[in-house]
Structures are given as structure tokens and as C-alpha cells.
Design a protein that fits this description.
Layout (H helix, E strand, L loop, with lengths): L14 H8 L6 E4 L11 E4 L5 E5 L2 E5 L5 E6 L4 H6 L1
Antiparallel strand pairs: 1-2, 3-4, 4-5
Amino acid sequence: MIPVTRELPADLETPVSVYLKLRDGSPSFLLESVEKGEQLGRYSFIGVQAPMSLTARGGRVTTKGAGGAVLESHEYGDPLDAVKEA
């Protein structure tokens, strides 16, 4: 995996509109740094064609690889602990 970054002026686009243009049906995400009570975030991170995914349901976190194959599944009190381990 080779991370690619690009800073874009957001004069005519929103993070959601850019995300909707880039996603292609493969696992993807949009993370925004919106603070409590704010309307706009300072930073937005968009990832497409992710080689792995973490899904949390209840206390169970499942890690899937390319093609949706389950790699791991564990119980966590806080699902963010799984992200910290990844």
C-alpha cells in the first residue's frame, strides 16, 4: 500500500461531494475533524480501495481483508482499542 495525499482548495466542493465522486463500491471512508458544535471541520480524510476494513457491532470487532475474507474477530470493551492495535 502506498499512501497518496493531496491538499485541495474547497471553494466549490465539500468533503462529502468529493467522497461521493471518489468512492467506487470498494471499502472506503470519510473522516472529518469536526469539533463539538461546529459546522465545518478543519481536516477531512478520504480513503478509497482500502485493503482492509474494521467493522464494530456491539462489542465485537471484525477485521476483513481484500474480497471480504474475515481475518480476525474479537470482543472489545471499546472498539477504538481495535483501531489502536491495527
